Amino acid sequence: MTEKIAIEPLSACPEMIPVCASWTFGHWDCQAGTTFEETNRLFCDAANDTSSLPLTFVAIADGKPAGMISLSENDFKERSDLSPWLASLYVHPSHRNKSISMLLIKRLELEAERLGYRRLYLTTEASAALYEKNGWQEIDRARTPFGDASLMAKDF
């Protein structure tokens, strides 16, 4: 049986805020010194104000949260001169290897382009190949709280 995957803005499914906050906090923010309350507030803001960044999209598979991605003003403090950023791409382990990350990336890129952005940035410690498959290019190397990373960009 094939799963039906929907990519929805977080504003359309605010009940997913705690899931997105938990995934982000557990995967990144607890190691970066951010509190759960700060992370949760970020997703509440993303769900309430759809006219400005951050924006978050949720992949829903058969009614259950499967993954998420955000478009943020900045996701790397050392490069505050660059904006906006693809951030918080996460796919739940039970939904990996089903192309959900590709669907999330494409949806975010379409939204960024619709909003008038001409270039996006991201950092990744281990997934550069995934992004390169989607037309991203490494423009620099960086050191993040999680280790050495590729600083990548994509032009539209």
Primary descriptors:
alpha+beta, Aminopeptidase, 4-stranded antiparallel sheet, 156 residues
Shape: globular
Counting H and I runs of at least 4 residues, what is the number of helices?
4
End-to-end span in angstroms? 36 Å
Low-confidence stretches: none
Please give the CATH class: Alpha Beta
**Could you name the CATH homologous superfamily?**
Gcn5-related N-acetyltransferase (GNAT)
The overall pLDDT, averaged over residues, is: 92
Q: What is the N-to-C order of secondary-structure elements (H for helix, E for strand)?
A: EHHEEEHEHEE
Bin the helical content.
25-40%
* CATH fold-level topology: Aminopeptidase
Total beta strand runs: 7
- Across the major sheet, the strand order is 1-2-3-4
How many domains in all? 1
**Biggest beta sheet summary:** 4 strands, antiparallel
Q: What percent strand?
A: 25-35%
CATH architecture: 3-Layer(aba) Sandwich
Strand pairing plus helix content: what structural class? alpha+beta
Query: Rg, please?
Result: 15 Å
